[in-house]
Amino acid sequence: MTIAELLPIVLKASLMLLVLGVGLRATASDAFYLFRRPRQLLAALLSMDVVVPLIAIVLASTFSLEPAVKIALVTLSLAPLPPTFSKKPLKAGGKMSYTVGLFVSVTIIAIVFIPLALALISRVTGVPLQMSPGAVWALVLWSLLAPLAAGMAIRRAAPSFAERAAGPVVAIATVVLIVAIVPILIKVWPIMMSLIGNGTVVVMGILAVLALAAGHFLGGPDADDRTVLALSSAARHPAIAIAIAHANFPEQRLAPAAVLLYVLVSGIATVPYLKWVARHQPPVVGEIIARDA
């Protein structure tokens, strides 16, 4: 099995467990939180599905980058599904209702958004792009919606068990990700390093920082919501990005490495932002502490 085939499997497996952990803490009210607040939903979609893709397209067309890097930037911008959704936003102070509501709404809308965005970019650029709605649906259904629904069902049937199991499930998911990703990183590292040059890391850093800024300023008056949307706008779903890249550019074998490089760069970019948030927001004393205790 090649790295390009193994990486999406590892990421999806870990993500499924992470999403299951979210579901074990979430309620149906949490899941539909943003659908009952259309202004907040539109602002979130504007940040994640409009602003970030536009930034990525401008950066890819402006700078002289490797073709694989340009593909990675665009495909990542079309995969607005945070890969570690259950950890950073909640630990940064995000409310469970907004965090899960954002996850569910963006995931459901991605089923329509990704094929439409590919068709629009194809028409504008003249580059043939496609990914069938069925393929998108299968990807988000089994890796995202199904584990979330399973966790919520378990919580409804056995709330005490769900509360006890949520922490260990997330911990196992994190261990699985680390154990599996380290050897992949070691093997793919030389490929990633070969992509560095011509401002690749700088451009990826610019995308991450501008995505954080877009989410922060469009997140509304609530400081916790701004933080969640900022992190979610900067984080992209690498498995979906790789799937889009492979479906449209199977000959670009460096694209998965470029996607992984952005994941590392964006993760580094969030560190100063989270420190800034910690200095400018009051300590979290609400439902997240209670649920994570």
Layout of helices and strands, plus pairs?
Elements: H1 3-25, H2 28-31, H3 38-62, H4 67-77, H5 88-91, H6 96-125, H7 133-157, H8 159-195, H9 200-218, H10 223-234, H11 238-248, H12 255-280, H13 287-292
Please give the CATH architecture.
Up-down Bundle
Give the helix/strand class: mainly alpha
CATH C-level category: Mainly Alpha
Largest beta-sheet details: none
Residue stretches low in confidence (pLDDT < 50, at least 5 long) are 284-293
Oligomer: single chain
**Global geometry:** globular
Rg, please? Answer: 18 Å
Which band does the percent of strand residues land in?
A: under 5%
Structural domain count: 1
Element pattern in H and E: HHHHHHHHHHHHH
Describe the model.
It is a single chain. This protein is mainly alpha-helical. It has one domain: Na+/H+ antiporter like fold (Up-down Bundle), CATH 1.20.1530. It has 13 helices and no strands. Helix 3 runs parallel beside helix 10 (223-234) and helix 4 packs across helix 11 (238-248). It is globular and about 55 Å long.
Summarize this structure briefly:
Helices cover 80% and strands 0% of the residues. The chain is built from 13 helices and no strands.
